[in-house]
Amino acid sequence: MGLSLALNTARSSLQASSTQMSVISRNNAGATDATYSRKIASLVTADGGVRISVRRSSDTALFFKMLSTTSNAAAQQAVLEGYDKLKNTVGDTSLNQSAAAKIGALNSALAQYANKPDDANLGRAVVDRAGELATMLNEATKTVQSARKEADTKIAESVGRVNDLLGQFETANKAVIQGSAAGIDISDALDARDKILAQLSEEMGITVSTRENNDMAIYTDSGVTLFEKTPRSVTFNPTSAFAPGTVGSAVYVDGVQITGQGPMPIHAGRLVGLVAVRDDITVTYQGQLDAIAATLIDAFGEADPSATPPVGPKVAGLLTYSGSGAPAMPSGAGLVGLAGRITTNPGIDPSKGGAVEALRDGLTYTYNPGGIGGNAAFAERLNAIATGMNADRTFDPALGHGAPASLQAFSTFSAAWLESGRKTASAEVDYRVTLLGHASEALSNATGVNMDDETALMLQVEKSYSASAKLLSVIDEMLRTLLNAVN
Fold first, then answer.
1. Residue 55: beta bridge partners?
2. Which segments constitute the Flagellar hook-associated protein FlgK helical domain (predicted)?
3. DSSP code string of 256-317
């Protein structure tokens, strides 16, 4: 081998070893970054020497499994957070804060008053329990609508993140395409692009397609294009305030609705969970609260007692509601949000200037033959109310309880429905998070950095570097000797 060829070989070997050490150092620096993939420096023989080709460790199947698992976990987490907020309407069961507990207290007070109708204090106790129940339903409605508003705000934030990530992806994708066309190291650019995909998958389910020069297109899991050469516009109009019956806006991608009843709804991601909270879970629960309020108003309602049994349109008794329609029984659109408007009747509630005896004797219609304040032993009206409170009624099957049930049973079902949904969501979150952990660990094992392996490789490269350096030193000495001999 000539000295010039030996010199070129030693020099290229030295450069290759230096590049390998640089790659190993990059791996060590990225070892703690969950989004970093191990870089591999491959030796390629060329022109009597060697050069380094850098590629990254990857596992496409595991990576996309992690993306789908991330989307599913994010959706369930959003649902669980919604249930947790609604759970505040029930509170600690030992504190008797639920509608079922307060209805039980009202029934007990009503029974005591019916047994001793001449005791005004017992009558006031009934009014107080009814007032507490009405207040609880009012506050529960506020909590439900607050949960809807919070979900709507988070939807807007999620859409903002999606648009921001798509903008970042455009920059990263261009770097990958340009690097691929130029034949330079694009491993870090690919890592940056994958990191953006992982963040995007938290907001919505996605799929991708890779084309020439590693160009990538992104689609929702329902097939709507999110990115192809350029990012698509994701739009959403947040609602400023929520009341029962308010319908929130949908999310669109280039004019295509991807949430709710749209033609191509997404199936996973935080957006799916948030929309479920805003449009389904809270709406159903509000409907249950409204049904409880309507049944209470009906149970205490008054009808013309001159017929046997009392017939004709009812009007509100002890419990009525604010807004148009009162004192007639609420119906149709008037039932929406009724739990937020139920209140005690000023004509009966002593704290509002009413006469508590009107509960026993009648307010709009006179039930007591002795008139209001007359026959103090009259209990027929109170017993009729108690019967109405405990009678089986038919509730809207859309509220989750199709079979006839008493008010107490339905309110108990409502609390159980809420807790069952929360427990199911919690278990689903635990399951999805565990799956995500396994998927992330498998991906890390396949593509991540093992410090022990990198240390061992560094020792090998250092030996190669030392050998190349020693060879250069020998060649240098030989060249010096040759030049001295010539001179």
1. 40
2. 97-302
3. EE-STT-SS---SSHHHHHHHIIIIIHHHHHHHHHHHHHHHHHHT-EEETTSSS-EEEEE--
Structure tokens at 333: 């659109």
Number of CB atoms found within 10 A of residue 5's CB: 11
Name the nearest CA neighbour of 464 among 1, 2, 21: 21
Under DSSP, the state recorded for 207 is: E
- Kindly report the length of the chain: 487
How far apart (Å, rounded) are the C-alpha atoms in residues 247 and 242? 8
Residue 466 is predicted with a pLDDT of: 65
For a pLDDT cut of 70, what percent of the chain falls above it?
Answer: 80
Domain extents in the chain: 1-57+450-487, 70-160+237-433
User: At residue 184, what are phi and psi to the nearest 5 degrees?
Assistant: -100, 175
Tens-digit pLDDT profile for residues 96-131: 788 999 999 999 999 999 999 999 999 999 999 999
Query: How much is the pTM?
Result: 0.86
Closest to 318 in 3D by CA, of 360, 290, 379, 367: 360
**Can you read off the two tokens belonging to residue 262?**
């749209």
DSSP state of 329: P
Predicted confidence band at 327 (pLDDT cuts at 50, 70, 90)? confident
Q: What is the pLDDT of residues 136-149, one digit of tens each?
A: 999 999 999 999 99
